[in-house]
């Protein structure tokens, strides 16, 4: 039976994030989950795998359980499957940021770019006045990206600020559409650009994973595969694992 994989995040005020670590780790272990979860003052970010019942119970705990007491009521979630367990162990870590931009003044809970659903993404990026921007690392971009997207050629997300200062201009780039794997990097990047004078900033809601899940291959503007940070390495349309994708599309 395939395992269920949940990629999730939410920016939310968690001043007690240090105290949350051990009970969250214990609950994941109790449910037989493996993967990685990051906790910070600004929220939660993680990918975990387990049985369908285990994952469903974990998500219910985050959304409705006493541990977070309703603070994670707007989780961004993507589900996929794995033939084998894609993680070696369970890790629950404390961080300064749940995704590291290196500017703790950026607060996505206050202001972010305009969300664009997967169904509306093609029309937006086809517009000639839209700068399409891939916010991921260079090795991820090399595996796949959207047609015509700008590659910032960064080694880590923390270099995005340097790229923006060097290559982006609020007067020239009036309309920016950005994307990343699951959406979290764009939350930070769009908040950062808006704070630095960019007028129209859009980002793909749910990221590439949601687009690949919902967009028929024949209508897709995605080329290649989407790197994921687990042992599956990459996913294609329908969130199929790379190693079995050829057979799955026959």
Automatic annotation (TrEMBL):
It comes from the Bacteria. Its EC number is 1.14.-.-. Keywords: Oxidoreductase, tRNA processing. SMART domains: RHOD. It catalyses: uridine(34) in tRNA + AH2 + O2 = 5-hydroxyuridine(34) in tRNA + A + H2O. Residues 126-220 form the Rhodanese domain. The keyword tRNA processing applies. It is an enzyme of class 1 (oxidoreductase). It holds the Pfam family Rhodanese. Catalyzes oxygen-dependent 5-hydroxyuridine (ho5U) modification at position 34 in tRNAs. Belongs to the TrhO family. This is tRNA uridine(34) hydroxylase. The lineage of its organism: Bacteria, Pseudomonadati, Pseudomonadota, Alphaproteobacteria, Hyphomicrobiales.
